[in-house]
Design a protein that fits this description.
Helices cover about 35% and strands about 25% of the residues. The radius of gyration is 17 Å and the shape is globular. The chain has about 270 residues and is of the alpha/beta class. It has 9 helices and 13 strands. The structure holds 3-hydroxy-5-(hydroxymethyl)-2-methylisonicotinaldehyde.
């Protein structure tokens, strides 16, 4: 069994980050170790009135030292929501605790719908870009992609040419494969562009008429699990999108802070039987 380390916050309530990654990656048949660089009472998106934030930056080198000492190494790293002070310690762990050929999956979780999440300074995307530079798989949404390359985010209306120029700029940051989510050329469909730097392939699903928190984390977690189970980037993105759609459809109305991804776990583990 492959062993992945996910590095992103624990939001105690809110169905995002580590509390999504651990069950979904496990359901793919991949061992999931966790390293939370911060502990929050809940996520920071609209709906919650505030949040507590306990920064664990100082713990990161201590954890790293114990792993080095005990020869604990990982086949893959998957990073999500992190803050500026976490980036150098994470880059160090990804160097010192990697098995040969370890894969780096980076979800630059910092923005959506044209704006940065609350709490991030305007120059944060340039800091996140340093983590993205070493990514084997970079998984931004359209807003994150634009901010990473210094463009003003556009909410919709990217032509195929504009999208592929944006993808080329993400490769120029250093990312090997780019998986761009939230892509649409037609209001009935929403999908993903998958690029290895040579060709761009697309996967679309019917657009669902609603917006939920945490779907990016569900997408990235399933994508990471599927890559470690040997799927191609396009296959992994298509499975991740199917699970996101199923999770949205399984979410009862009034459940506002996340999606009921738990109900997709049987379907997800079936895909790896
Ligand atoms: O789902 C991304 C995410 C992760 N962690 C925290 C967040 C968010 C999105 O708002 O606030 C703390």
């Amino acid at each position: 069994m492959k062993r992945l380390l996910t590095i992103q916050d624990i939001s105690c309530v809110g169905q995002c980050s580590t509390t999504v990654a651990l069950p979904l990656i496990s359901a793919c048949g991949v061992e999931c170790a966790v390293l939370p660089p911060a502990l929050l009472s809940n996520h920071t998106a609209a709906g919650f009135k505030g949040w507590s934030f306990c920064d664990l930056t100082a713990e990161l080198p201590k954890v790293e030292a114990k792993w080095i000492e005990q020869d604990i190494r990982f086949d893959a790293f998957y990073t999500g929501y992190v803050c500026e002070s976490h980036i150098d310690p994470i880059l160090s762990i990804m160097r010192t605790c990697a098995k040969p050929g370890a894969v780096r999956i980076v979800d630059p979780a910092m923005a959506d719908n044209g704006v940065l999440y609350k709490g991030f300074a305007a120059d944060f995307p340039s800091k996140m870009a340093r983590l993205c530079a070493g990514a084997d798989y970079l998984l931004p949404n359209l807003t994150e992609a634009a901010l990473l390359v210094g463009d003003t985010p556009k909410l919709n209306g990217y032509s195929q040419g504009e999208l592929e120029r944006l993808i080329a700029k993400l490769h120029a940051l250093g990312a090997k494969n780019v998986i761009l989510t939230g892509v649409s050329f037609d209001e009935r469909e929403l999908g993903t562009a998958v690029s290895d730097g040579k060709a761009v392939e697309y996967d679309f699903n019917p657009r669902l008429p609603c917006m939920f928190h945490g779907t990016g984390d569900v997408f990235a977690s399933v994508f990471a699990g599927a890559i470690l189970r040997g799927r191609t980037a396009l296959e992994a993105a298509a499975l991740a999108a199917d699970i996101v759609c199923a999770a949205i459809q399984a979410t009862e109305s009034g459940h506002w802070y996340g999606v009921s991804f738990e109900k997709t776990i049987p379907q997800l583990s079936q895909s790896f039987q």
